[in-house]
């Protein structure tokens, strides 16, 4: 006799129903709500396309979370789902149980298919739109309440993802009755025609995160900028690897910053701005920052900046409530540190994450900002690796951060005494010198008794996205690990 658990009555009922597809389709109108999620998973796994089409039409809940299935839909299965929606959209009268309002292709509800009926019934329209659909006597898709499809989209060069390409084409042909919403949109393409094709389909005020990289020029910006100002619910913007027209006058290149600033100023909900390797900012950062609402997070990396740009950081109203600030590879060795000190003083009551990484700081720079840093009472994470400071400066820094009660993690550079004489740089660590430095640091930390996790960076590479850290273990010994370069989001967790 088998010791395995016998199949449940529900499983047997589904098996019996699927043994005859015509019977299964006919039975959907009277199928108990409890069985719909389990039946859908089984039909989906077996690729019974005709039953799948009928299930979509009869789906009794507001949201069909297709993206939360264990396996992502292949193109043929996805086409069957869309065929079911086509039949649903073509009906002139509302079926008695027609409730489907949202087809979700995002992973928003982990494990919901295993939880069954009650969680399915509780899912409603995602809260991503400025204008809510109005109620109507029919709970289905009317002109006032179109079918909403949610999916994170990526526009890139080369062959597009087949499922995404098919969805964009399908939604474009049904624009009157279908709204395609994308909480996160990534653009990795230099084809403005492909970008426009996608943006004409997507409901722009559904976009909360926008990542744009590697395609900007003056003509692209001119065409794209009006779309940007329509993304009314944008919370996070990442701009990276954008170059100016090097062979034109600097005043012409200032047009980039002016154009971005003019449109970003219309975004009431923008709270995070991340800018990486954007080369048209030189002296033009104020044109962007002066128009922004107060930011929660700001990161600038590998950008050419002038003193006026850094001074603007401390003066712009949008930086006065920062919680997370990251400045990386800005080469501030010839810049005045007073602006940064002033900024730290302004945000001392709100700042939780501060990263000043690979900025060519010297002992003098560090000494100048210590008074501002000492006031950052809410600081939880502090990163200053990649800078040229001495053991004495590092000791002063550790003495200060040990008094910051909320600080839980600190990333510091190996001091100059760790390197071969006159050979500061990656790969030039002297093992014997480093061993002596770490021994001294271990004693310093035992004397200070900080609550933070202290990590000493001896090597980092932005191109390979890796860092080598020495971390002090519970037994007082130093452990070497290789980790990915910490981004602002990783630091602020």
From TrEMBL:
<dbReference type="GO" id="GO:0008284">
    <property type="term" value="P:positive regulation of cell population proliferation"/>
</dbReference>
<dbReference type="GO" id="GO:0045596">
    <property type="term" value="P:negative regulation of cell differentiation"/>
</dbReference>
<keyword id="KW-0433">Leucine-rich repeat</keyword>
<keyword id="KW-0677">Repeat</keyword>
<dbReference type="GO" id="GO:0005737">
    <property type="term" value="C:cytoplasm"/>
</dbReference>
<dbReference type="InterPro" id="IPR032675">
    <property type="entry name" value="LRR_dom_sf"/>
</dbReference>
<dbReference type="GO" id="GO:0043066">
    <property type="term" value="P:negative regulation of apoptotic process"/>
</dbReference>
<protein>
    <submittedName>
        <fullName>PRAME family member 8-like</fullName>
    </submittedName>
</protein>
<dbReference type="InterPro" id="IPR026271">
    <property type="entry name" value="PRAME"/>
</dbReference>
<comment type="similarity">
    <text>Belongs to the PRAME family.</text>
</comment>
<dbReference type="InterPro" id="IPR050694">
    <property type="entry name" value="LRRC14/PRAME"/>
</dbReference>
<dbReference type="GO" id="GO:0045892">
    <property type="term" value="P:negative regulation of DNA-templated transcription"/>
</dbReference>
């Amino acid at each position: 006799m088998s010791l395995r658990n016998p199949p449940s009555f529900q499983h047997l009922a589904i098996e019996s129903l699927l043994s005859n597809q015509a019977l299964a389709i006919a039975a959907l109108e009277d199928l108990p709500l409890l069985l719909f999620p389990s039946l859908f998973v089984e039909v989906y796994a077996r690729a019974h396309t005709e039953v799948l089409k009928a299930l979509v039409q009869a789906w009794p809940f507001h949201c069909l979370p297709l993206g939360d299935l264990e396996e992502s839909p292949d193109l043929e299965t996805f086409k069957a789902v869309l065929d079911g929606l086509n039949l649903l959209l073509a009906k002139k009268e509302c079926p008695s149980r027609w409730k489907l309002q949202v087809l979700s292709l995002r992973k928003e509800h982990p494990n919901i298919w295993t939880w069954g009926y009650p969680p399915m019934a509780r899912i409603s329209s995602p809260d991503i739109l400025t204008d809510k659909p109005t109620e109507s006597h029919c709970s289905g898709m009317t002109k006032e309440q179109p079918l909403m499809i949610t999916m994170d989209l990526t526009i890139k060069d080369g062959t597009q993802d087949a499922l995404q390409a098919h969805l964009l084409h399908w939604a474009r042909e049904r624009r009157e009755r279908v709204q395609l919403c994308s909480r996160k949109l990534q653009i990795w393409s230099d084809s403005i025609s492909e970008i426009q094709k996608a943006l004409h389909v997507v409901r722009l005020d559904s976009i909360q995160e926008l990542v744009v990289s590697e395609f900007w020029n003056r003509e692209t910006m001119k065409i794209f900028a009006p779309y940007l100002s329509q993304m009314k619910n944008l919370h996070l913007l990442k701009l990276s690897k954008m170059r100016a027209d090097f062979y034109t006058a600097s005043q012409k290149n200032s047009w980039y910053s002016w154009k971005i600033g003019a449109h970003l100023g219309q975004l009431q909900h923008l709270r995070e701005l991340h800018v990486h390797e954007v080369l048209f900012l030189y002296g033009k950062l104020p044109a962007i920052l002066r128009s922004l609402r107060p930011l929660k997070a700001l990161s600038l990396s590998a950008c050419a900046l002038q003193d006026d740009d850094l001074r603007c950081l401390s003066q712009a109203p949008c930086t006065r409530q920062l919680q997370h600030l990251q400045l990386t590879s800005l080469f501030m060795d010839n810049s005045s540190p007073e602006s940064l000190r002033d900024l730290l003083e302004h945000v001392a009551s709100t700042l939780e994450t501060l990263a000043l990484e690979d900025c060519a700081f010297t002992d003098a720079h560090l000494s100048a900002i210590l008074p501002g840093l000492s006031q950052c009472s809410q600081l939880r994470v502090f990163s200053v690796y990649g800078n040229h400071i001495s053991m004495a400066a590092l000791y002063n820094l550790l003495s200060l951060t040990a008094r910051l009660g909320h600080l839980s993690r600190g990333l510091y550079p190996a001091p100059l005494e760790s390197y071969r004489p006159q050979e500061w740089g990656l790969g030039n660590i002297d093992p014997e010198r480093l061993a002596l430095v770490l021994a001294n640091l271990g004693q310093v930390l035992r004397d200070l008794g900080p609550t933070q996790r202290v990590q000493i960076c001896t090597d980092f590479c932005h191109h390979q996205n890796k860092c080598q850290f020495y971390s002090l273990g519970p037994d007082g010994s130093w452990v070497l690990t290789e980790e990915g370069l910490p981004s602002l989001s990783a630091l602020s967790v």
